[in-house]
Amino acid sequence: MLRLAILFAIISMLAAAFGFYGVSDASAGIAKFMALVFAVMFIVTLILGVTAARKVAT
User: Fold this and answer.
1) What is the pLDDT along the chain (58 residues), one digit of tens a residue?
2) DSSP structure class, residue 19
3) What pLDDT shows up at residue 53?
4) Taking the CB of residue 12, how many other CB atoms lie within 10 A of it?
5) 57: Cα separation from own chain's centroid
6) Which pTM does this prediction carry?
7) How many domains is the chain partitioned into structurally?
8) Domain that holds residue 53
9) Which H or E run includes 36?
């Protein structure tokens, strides 16, 4: 997921450099969405891992 966010951010920068602002805006929006989804999934997984580790330890 993070790899896709980085890919779309690079596409957005390249499109902006070549003057394709519509493509740039769309790619930037997709990159932001993918980064947000990645962050949410990371936090949920982190919380689940911590709670599972506490149950195993006790």
Assistant:
1) 789 999 999 999 999 999 999 999 999 999 999 999 999 999 999 999 999 988 887 6
2) T
3) 86
4) 21
5) 32
6) 0.78
7) 1
8) 2-57
9) helix 21-57
